[in-house]
């Protein structure tokens, strides 16, 4: 009996060590009505301003938001933090289809391939996330890390990442970039793209003669490509529009404040061996933005294609966690 009891205790401990424990994280949100002096519903550059929120929480793990993706129904989204956490919740809209806040927010630790919490900051620096869709449903998320540069997949359970990491093979030259200027953007091409299902990886600091080094992971579409550099800007994330066009978010600094821009690159140009250029469809600077690091695309409550951006406050009092939303014209 004692042996069976001991075995039972060991089994329970093993299960607890591999189960993702979620921490409630109430988030206080304040709506943002203006962007570049324009009101919600007005055209800003090549997009339409749809509103935003400033997010704060008493939970110390909330912050450092580096990437986001919608991972389930009812506007369930998941963000990654550069301190090794998944932050999941529902984006809530008001009666005018304007972002109002985040509800049901949980923070869970990102785990390694053995199901254990990531042991040190060098391994925790998650920078990008995108959702893997199978048969029209979200099934998993793909996450990119810098410092200990790697890509890993995680299963989704009720729209929240869970379980052990399944590492994705990436080129050796990328894996060997062990700095915080390595892998910055990860996005998966949609069905309408000529490279449907392929994953685009874009670096922040690895440069070639043509621009920032990038790579495409795919069964048939595999190989190097590059992103043309914009002076004073570095790429921080990417996302695909439903038609296959690629959006790239870039960030910079000017006069002691942040700047940012979003480029739209034609679907036909997203191929191995190409140089990605595209057209700037959105810019921002100063108090309208912060340290913008994440971008994703989803369908809003009014049926419009929404482009959602978040900022990384670096856990500093002088930076903010913003969520800004725009739509195509």
Mean pLDDT: 92
Q: How many domains make up the coordinates?
A: 1
Instruction: Enumerate how many helices there are, as a single number.
Output: 3
Task: Describe the main β-sheet briefly.
Answer: 6 strands, antiparallel
Named CATH topology: Tachylectin-2, Chain A
Strand content: over 45%
How many extended strands? Answer: 24
Helix content: under 10%
Q: What order do the helices and strands follow?
A: HEEEEEEEEHEEEEHEEEEEEEEEEEE
Architecture (CATH level 2) name: 5 Propeller
- Cα Rg: 20 Å
Low-confidence stretches: 1-20
Query: Would you state the CATH class?
Result: Mainly Beta
Backbone shape = globular
Structural class: mainly beta
What is the CA–CA distance across the termini?
70 Å
Structural overview:
The structure is a single chain. 8% of the residues lie in helices and 53% in strands. It has a single domain (2-328), classed as Tachylectin-2, Chain A. The protein is globular and about 45 Å long. Strands 2, 3, 4, 22, 23 and 24 form a six-stranded antiparallel beta sheet that branches. Strands 1-8-7-6-5 form a five-stranded antiparallel beta sheet, with no helix packed on it. Strand 6 and strand 7 form a beta hairpin. It contains three helices and 24 strands. It has 329 residues and is mostly beta strands. The longest helix is centred in the first third of the chain and has 17 residues, at 2-18. Residues 1-20 have low confidence and may be disordered.
Quick overview of this protein structure:
It contains three helices and 24 strands. The protein is mainly beta and 329 residues long.
